[in-house]
Amino acid sequence: VPDRTADIWGGRTPFAAGGVWPIRVDQMLADGVREEDVERWVQSACVLCSNGCGLDIAVADGRIVGVRGREVDRINKGRLGPKGLYGWQANNAPDRLTRPLVRRDGELQPATWDEAMTRVAERSREVLDGTGPLGMAFYSSGQLFLEDYYTLAVVARAGIGTPHLDGNTRLCTATSDAALKESFGTDGAPGSYEDFDLCDTLFMVGHNVAETQTMLWARILDRLHGRDRPRLVVVDPRPTPSAGEADVHLPIRNGTNLMLLNAIQHELIENGWVDETWIREHTIGFEELREVVAAHAPERAAEVCGVSVRDIREAARIVGTAQRLVSTCLQGVYQSHQATASACQVNNLNLLRGMIGKPGCTVFQCNGQPTAQNTRETGANGDLSGMRNWQNLDHVRELAAHWNVDPLQIPSWAPPTHAMQIFRLCEEGSISFLWIMGTNPAVSLPDLGRIRSILRQERLFVVVSDAFLSETAALADVVLPAALWGEKTGTFTNQDRTVHLSEQAVDPPGEARPDLEILIDYAERLGLVDRDGAPLVKWRTPEEAFDHFRATTRGRPCDYAPITYERLRGGSGIQWGGDRLYTDGRFNTDTDYCEEWGHDLLTGAAFERKHYTELNPAGRAILKAAHYTPPPEEPSEHYPLLLTTGRTVYHWHTRTKTGRVDELSRAAPEPWLELSPADAELIGVDEGDRVRIESARGAAEMRARISNIRPGVVFLPFHYGYWDTTDGAGPDGEPHAANELTITAWDPVSKQPLFKTGAVRVERVAAGERPAAAPTQTASAPAGTR
Amino acid sequence: VTGVAPRPKLGAAIGKLQGSLTALADAYRMLGERHIADADVHHLALALAKQCEGQAEVLAPHRDRHGRKLDESVGETPRESLLEPPQWKASRLPAGRSSPGALLLHDLRGLHLAIEEAAMLWLIVGQAAQATRDRELLVLVERSRKEITHQLMWVTGRIKETSPQVLIA
């Protein structure tokens, strides 16, 4: 078996535009296990990125012993990336949580399920009887299944009746969701992966696809290396593998996306590279957009973004002369300044060119996590179940009827509370019960010193359900051992709306339980009932939960009615809504159909029905416009460098799984700081030296990697926390987590936290005896090697 | 700017509007500095303070043209009374005492009135701009009224979110 941490994307299978992406089956079995030892192959899909590659899980002796890509699956045609091939081994890690833990005399100690759940239910009841639902909050993940999320949404919204429910998808896909709603009326990716097979031009902004979605990059690489190579424009301050393949790479100063995107639109309009007839018939807002982008000429953008006028013009020419344009963006937009405003401009590019809803023509507002789409569809984030509009009373009534509760029970007096605000309310003390499921805010949220102090408060009761004793779990009052992927059945939906079924392959270890079971137990203990006194949660099995959700989506854009467990078994994943949305140029913007009535992009102020009706989109897409503004924190004399944080290809989130897999952990064992040769010389740092990086929030230390990152910008991977250090929860005097430094700020519309700009200083601490142990084939490659 | 005869009373109204925008900018800045722990309020308030100052600044040639100077009309700073002196630590106080949410709600209410005042003065100036067919001023009026409307919608939305938590939790 080849070492796929070294051969990240696997062998090339080039193909030309309109061709079929060839099959390549990737497989990995544990040491000593031969194919004939495998007793069963169980259908599933990968949960280690938003691509959602179809795979089968190999089982022998009641254990997972390997995986194999599903060649019939439309997403990957048999391929798997390094995380997919190796990541399953985390299920078998020796330090899985196998028993509930409760805090006694300040220590987490083993307990029975009954004792742990009694504590959780009693504390909930106490808060509900005292403060009421506004004292209760739930913060989940992008890793659970649709069935878990839907049950959670029903429990929190209809049962408890709290607005304080969100997922960590707030950190990864909130802006994708927001931008799709602003431009097209509802969530839902307009296009299909086949559009990558058909396009002649690719425009990627802040989307390090080669590391974040390796098998999507394999597909794109096969196009780039085939006949009819599509033209490629990449916007990224780092020298990513995709930037290396680009016709034009714009390494802009981070935080200036909106300026660049406005300048490109300025050029499209100036040069007549827009489809005026299509714009007139299928969009509104063109005049205002024209006025706004007129103030963003390429000369101004070149100065603000720090790239040449010539390159901006060339990028615009490539986009402007495309015949079949696919635009994409990800965290470089979503976690940056003016996130929703910028993501909407990416939508605008395709709208201006009339290139959406047609083969090879679409925009991908990509997702971060594998099941992020389902938090949005089920309403386990800040949305209302079934892509409904919380401001639209008819939508709320519809949902209430479906759940058989009083419409007043569902909190719809204001937008649901987003994650950062939930933590703020925990900080000021008005929330006193917080249940965190399958995520790790003590490493993943900005300004960790603050987050740890919030979670440590005596007055806040913290429940954590997880598979491992994460940094967050270490601070909890009750820890519930949860089953992982492969140990429970459920579905999830990837970033091109492909729904996959993931079947249970093995039993969870020890007493660990599926999240769905835990939630149903909780609802029963609280005695949550509908308006007739019957149990609120009317399902027991994942399939029953799925079917209940399907009924909720009837007539909504994400209509799951045609998709059943039966149809999902055996073949490929299935897209809801068919292969493409908006094929007739009609968008989901009718006043009573759309998912929201829009926002002002600068302040985030929500428009109301009267404003929307006046606008009267009536099925036309909305060209949103916004002026560039400077980010909240810019480099200064004391903090002269710009910080950006992000992923590396080998790790997932906070390494709770990937850090427990030898192959992946060895490939990226410790944090590092990337800086340019120019900055390294200025500071006097050599490759591998220990450096200290400091912001107004905190400081961290690690080794330096001198890379080809944009001068003036430094990068930190966000994966590294403290579960594998002696303290287990925090730095204990030796901080190295990226989020010790990041600023507490978020986008006014999507409420996504800002991780991609902030001001820092870097100092040399000591000489290194070796180079940084940072990946060498990715954006982190040493300067001069790629 | 030529072609429109000076209207001293319009000049005075523009001066009053500038004074109101300057007071509003101060109110935003005070709000932003007082509610650092509410990061959205903090960052946006500082950005909107600049927006208000920008609006006041571009009015200067219009005010001068109509023959009144700013210092003749800034006598009133009505908005200051709506915001009590800064209580820096208040936004980090533990619950059960003077709740930081209650303080935020109080300050947002005060801000709402200050924005309303500026919105009304923009309306008054806008009416006069229409009657004098002053296209340049009308462009400013249209853009600024839109911005002020969004400010009002923002503060209203923030109050809607905040009040249940303050009054009930």
Describe this structure as you would to a colleague.
The complex is a heterodimer of chains A (786) and B (169). Chain A has 786 residues and is of the alpha/beta class. In chain A, the strands form 6 sheets. A 7-stranded mixed beta sheet of chain A has the order 6-5-17-16-15-7-8, with helices on both faces. A 6-stranded mixed beta sheet of chain A has the order 23-25-24-27-22-26. A 5-stranded parallel beta sheet of chain A has the order 11-10-9-13-14. In chain A, α9 packs across α11 and α9 packs across α13. The longest helix of chain A has 18 residues. Chain B is mainly α and 169 residues long. In chain B, 70% of the residues lie in helices and 0% in strands. Chain B starts with 7 loop residues before the first helix and ends with a helix. About 15% of the residues of chain B have low confidence. Classes of the chains: A alpha/beta (786), B mainly alpha (169).
Number of E-type strands of chain B: 0
Proportion in β-strands of chain A? 15-25%
Write out the strand line-up for the largest beta sheet of chain A, numbering strands in chain order.
6-5-17-16-15-7-8
Shape of chain A: globular
- Backbone shape of chain B: elongated
Q: Beta fraction of the residues of chain B? A: under 5%
Largest sheet of chain B: none
Q: What is the CA–CA distance across the termini of chain B?
A: 56 Å
